[in-house]
Amino acid sequence: MKQPLLGQKILEWRKAKGLTQEELVERCNINVRTIQRIEAGEVTPRSYTVKAILEVLEVNPNDLQYFQLEKEANSELNNLSSWLRFSFITGIIYLILAIIESVIDVQLYLEKSEFSVGFGYVYTFLKMSVLVLFLFFTGAFYKLGQAFSNLLLKVTAIFLMILTGAIILEDIVTYWIGIDIVSGLILRSLILGLVYVLFATSFLYLSKEKGTTYIIVGALGMLTGVSFMTVVFAIPGLIFLTVFEVSLIILLYQEYRKTSPDNPKTFLSQEQVFL
């Protein structure tokens, strides 16, 4: 346990017993200055000193361990809340840029525009911005997978990040070189569809405990994945993907609100998730 927290608890337990520092010193055979510094969080006491103090205060050592675990759980919950808030914001920016990116990609595919160096730099910057934002956005679902102990959500989030990175890099290289060096649109659509189906499945699995939002997100993700896998409906699948990502952003916001320190009711039991 961090020293300021330990000192704080010793101070609380001493006052609960109705003891002054001097009375505690007499019973523990410890220097009064030592007690003062421990309670002030200025020093880290030796284990036998802590044991002596706990015996006098009639505190079970397990209570000290539970307090430490409780503080660690609070810290983990705060970290998750920060991640969700950050990913929610980046998700909104990502979605806006992704829509612009999709429109440009469709135009490039249908119109076969002539090569332009100036546009190439803008196109590359847009693609890389989308990739970075997508990584931050999807990283939140990896974090949720950790919190919910959902291996499928963690694995599919990682696969989505890797696959999206490969696709975006392929798009950039394709524009500059003019050759599709990796997969082609059909193979890309099939792989993306499969990953999105698995990603959606993880939300449907969680919906048993988490409720309607997860059912909606899972259903939209499943519709998106199946559309990509049919290849024929890959273009409409882009519309489904946009709606799906909007639902993911809403889900992140809801989970952020539930984990926010300002919310007295948390969506997670700290013992269930972190201990």
General description of the model:
The chain is mostly helical. The protein folds into two domains: 3-59, 434 Repressor (Amino-terminal Domain), CATH 1.10.260; 68-274, no CATH class. It contains eleven helices and no strands. The longest helix is centred in the N-terminal third of the chain and has 51 residues, at 61-111.
C-alpha geometry: elongated
Mean pLDDT across all amino acids:
81
- The share of residues in extended strands comes to under 5%
Helix content: over 70%
Q: How many angstroms separate the termini? A: 16 Å
Order of helices and strands: HHHHHHHHHHH
Query: What can be said about the biggest beta sheet?
Result: none
Radius of gyration, Cα only, in angstroms?
27 Å
- Structural domain count: 2
Question: Helix/strand/pairing class, anyone?
Answer: mainly alpha
Number of separate strands: 0
List low-confidence stretches: 266-275
Number of helices: 11
Task: Give a quick summary of the entry.
With 275 residues, the chain is an all-alpha fold. It contains eleven helices and no strands.
Summary keywords:
275 residues, mainly alpha, 434 Repressor (Amino-terminal Domain), 2 domains, 82% helix, elongated
How would you summarize the topology of this molecule?
Blueprint: H1 3-16, H2 21-28, H3 32-39, H4 47-57, H5 61-111, H6 117-147, H7 151-177, H8 185-210, H9 212-230, H10 234-259, H11 270-274
